Amino acid sequence: MVFRNAQFRSLAARIRGFRSGHRLKGRVERVERGSIHGWAFDPSAPDRRLDIEIRIDGVAAVSCVADRARGDLARSGIGDGSHGFQAELPAHFRDGQAHRVQAFERESGWELPSASTEVMLERGPAAGALPKPVRFAGGRALSAFIAPVAAEDGVADADGAEGDAIVNGRFARWSAPFRQTLSHQAIQLADGWFLEGKKPNPKVSAWLTEVITRDLQTGEEGALSYGVSVFGPLPGKYARLLTALNVEAFVSSSPKRLTFYSRPASATQQHPALAAPQISAIANVSIVARTMVAGPDDASADRRLCVLAKKLRVPAAGKSFAIDLTAEQVQAVLSEAAAKESVLLLAFEFSTFADCVIAEVSLTDAPKQDRWTNDASDRPSLEDDNIAAQIGAVRGLEHWLAPDPVPAPIARHGGRLLSLSAAKWRWPPRPGRSLEIVICVHDAAEETLDCLDSVKRCTTVPHIVTIVDDGSTGSTRAQLRSYVEGAPWMRLIEFDEQMGYTKAANAGLSAATADWLVLLNSDTIVTRGWIEGLFEVVDARPDVALVGPLSNAASWQSVPDVQDAAARWKVNSIPAGMTIDEMAALVAEMSPRQFPEVPLLNGFCTMMRRSAVEELGFLDEVNFPQGYGEENDLCLRARKAGHRLALADHVYVYHVKSASFGSQRRNQLSKRGTERLLAKHPDADMQKLQQEMAELGALAELRKSLRRRLSQASQSASSEVA
After folding, report:
1. Range(s) of the domain holding residue 104
2. DSSP assignment of 414-468, as one string?
């Protein structure tokens, strides 16, 4: 019998299970806020992190890795304590009913002992009163009338601020099925929300989505909320998401602001395999006046009252939009409402292809500090009246008008952000060249401080350093706090528990605001001129989005040797009598400076164009929680999106190699990352891409030259000793 690799691994795992008497330990502990918590441990392989599959009533619901650090497990002697798991349940499983929850080790198929439990999966959104139904015209499924939902039934707090014209903008009430297709010309989704097309289109799906927004300026994550996903092709080139406005909120002609959060629907967990054929976008955001048309069909007619925004591009990372209504638009709404001849609707319109999540929708008075008034009392007291008169017209100075200090952000990346010490000052950036360096840390204090010292010593380009402390112990944390004191170009983000490398990295990257971001491992030593060298590549290749340097230990970016005698990735040591800076100078001297385009970059040190990273959606936290594969995934996604990658073949950054993990743990993470990368990108020929890296002519010649020069230096040193 011939087994495929996956079948062989599964069979081998089952045999191991029989031989060990099936000694896996673990259990499902609780279900809380849509998350399943528990732990899993294999006593026969204590360093192994188990892949877990959660099943609800026998149906696979979600997968995760049992690698979360937990002090209670460590104190109980469960390995090193890093065997906890947490999995977010897709919203459609949460129906308020009792279900059987089981946890299985994926490779062997063994169910964890004490893991099966009967639990009540609390309903995601709170149930509320049904809105008035859509009335169909003569069986043609034409939406004739949509009534606003009453802001009552005990769920007003979930509907947003008082005076909000959007009653169910947080989708806290959802009485319809959680997942539907556009089987009619119009279907009801959340209470008061409807999806319409020119005709029925079963290829278009809409479903309830759990959303955690992230502020791209601060990295702050919001609380868990709900939204609606719309996804699918639009043969009629048209579909729109509608809700009726509560016109009573328009009690005055004061400035109004529409805010909402959006991200591509194809990025949600419910549809991991879907990929939209184009960049996600909202064609129009409009206010529509709908009036009844007298006739036997009792149909309706729509008139677009005003267009609030056109062609909104939705980045893969998600974005919070804020749209200010003009005085003319506010007056048009007030006039239409006063006539009482129509229902006013907010419409999100899509064309060609729908791939969008809409969440946290609100239409309220614009914040006072963002309005422009002629009242001198509203203006700050400044020495120059000309400056004060321009504050309302200059973006970025809105906070000058706020009477209270800005509070420190509290982010929730699955854990609590203890502190965010912002840089006290910033160097004046070169246009288009502002720079931020993000360094993630988990213990390994000595290597980390060496890295920070090298960045401080060798980085002369104006920059900010963001250090993300991913749940380090007290000693490391204290040393990092002490290090950033008196360093106004450095800021420190701290998590009270280890979140995993990719979440920590994304927290730092999303908190950055510079044009270019460098994601730098904490076990590296940078060298003089490293940033200038990376920007030289950008000057030579203006279309590049990701740039990486050479190193002593960075797979295909290693010099002088890539592999050792056993065909393993080589960690090249610095020759005796030579410093790291001298090695970097030698590389720069002998480099052909071809800056070759490459298909992959090692993630130990990568400079990235911020706009490209936002478009791609940052690093994949789900498939690569501890790293090891996340950089290849980002490179593959970048190339698919049309971005270019290049190598700075004259820049050298020393790499100690994973000071946060031992070699055995590193090998396990590398193996798991490779498996998940191949599963996520089945169309990628990794062997061919690796061959491209191996055959880079510029690097082959550079390696030969370096080996020759180093050999000559070694022989000369030996002769002097003799």
Report:
1. 5-120
2. SSBEEEEE--S--PPPPTT--EEEEEEE-S-HHHHHHHHHHHHHH--S--EEEEE
